[in-house]
């Protein structure tokens, strides 16, 4: 859906021919989709049932199903449903608000800009201000400070603790179970991580295993000395912190991240 909104923003009148966009959709699913394998045909077909998308083939309106061959053979093309296109023409800011809701409900904030870049969405105007959506769960703004204090202002993976003047820089509070998936704003669902390791944690390169030891995905490849030192060498190391008296990551949140985010099997610790 984010891809469709990005393409609509670029050319409101264009249809997305499945065989043309299939490669883009596949790359997005590999990088940002669920751990289980999903073909690009699945969302292309099933968005129709949500009432926001329509598919046409050479035979007329209607999707031929989730079969890749059928979508290709029928020259299937999709675009936003007529009612939604009309609403976007009446109220252009609706596109940005829709995109923000989709991002907030499905992805951690550290991936939002990367996703927007990947699908071609320009949301700067929305970021500058817009009406709040009533009834949505609100984040606890205190969480960042509580987590950074708990981990004594250092990255739990690498120990980075940089400051500029009297302020920490490059340190972030990461949700273990993503806020978008009902992860609470609690310290036992948080980690203080540097910007690099926060991104890698949210991408499933890094995780936290039994005994609060760091997991590194076997699927990660980094041949440089820097990649080895900053990522692969972390495999099997214990987390740094939290300080005594503060609850570590709850087992349920660790399990969620391992099952839903961490990619593949973990690397063995480097015996050297």
From TrEMBL:
Residues 1-122 form the ScoMcrA-like DNA sulfur-binding domain. CDD domains: HNHc (cd00085). Residues 155-208 form the HNH nuclease domain. It holds the Pfam family DNA-SBD_ScoMcrA. Coiled coil: none annotated. Transmembrane segments: none annotated. NCBIfam families: PT-DNA_restrict. This is Uncharacterized protein. It comes from Streptomyces hundungensis. The lineage of its organism: Bacteria, Bacillati, Actinomycetota, Actinomycetes, Kitasatosporales.
């Amino acid at each position: 859906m984010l891809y469709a909104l990005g393409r609509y923003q670029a050319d409101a009148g264009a249809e997305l021919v499945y065989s043309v966009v299939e490669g883009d959709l596949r790359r997005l699913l590999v990088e940002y989709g669920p751990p289980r394998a999903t073909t690009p045909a699945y969302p292309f077909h099933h968005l129709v049932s949500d009432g926001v998308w329509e598919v046409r083939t050479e035979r007329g309106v209607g999707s031929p199903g989730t079969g890749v061959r059928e979508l290709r053979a029928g020259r299937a093309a999709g675009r936003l449903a007529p009612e939604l296109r009309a609403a976007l023409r009446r109220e252009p800011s609706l596109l940005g608000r829709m995109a923000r809701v989709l991002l907030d409900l499905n992805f951690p904030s550290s991936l939002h800009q990367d996703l927007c870049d990947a699908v071609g969405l320009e949301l700067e105007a929305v970021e500058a201000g817009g009406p709040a959506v009533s009834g949505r769960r609100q984040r606890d703004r205190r969480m960042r400070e509580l987590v950074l204090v708990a981990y004594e202002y250092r990255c739990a993976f690498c120990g980075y603790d940089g400051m500029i003047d009297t302020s920490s820089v490059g340190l972030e509070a990461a949700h273990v179970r993503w806020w978008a998936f009902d992860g609470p704003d609690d310290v036992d669902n948080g980690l203080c991580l540097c910007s690099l390791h926060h991104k890698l944690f949210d991408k499933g390169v890094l995780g936290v295993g039994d005994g609060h030891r760091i997991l590194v995905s076997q699927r990660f490849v980094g041949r440089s000395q820097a990649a080895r030192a900053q990522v692969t060498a972390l495999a099997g190391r214990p987390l740094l912190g939290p300080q005594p008296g503060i609850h570590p990551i709850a087992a349920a949140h660790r399990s969620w991240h391992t099952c839903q985010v961490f990619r593949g099997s973990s690397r063995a610790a480097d015996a050297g």
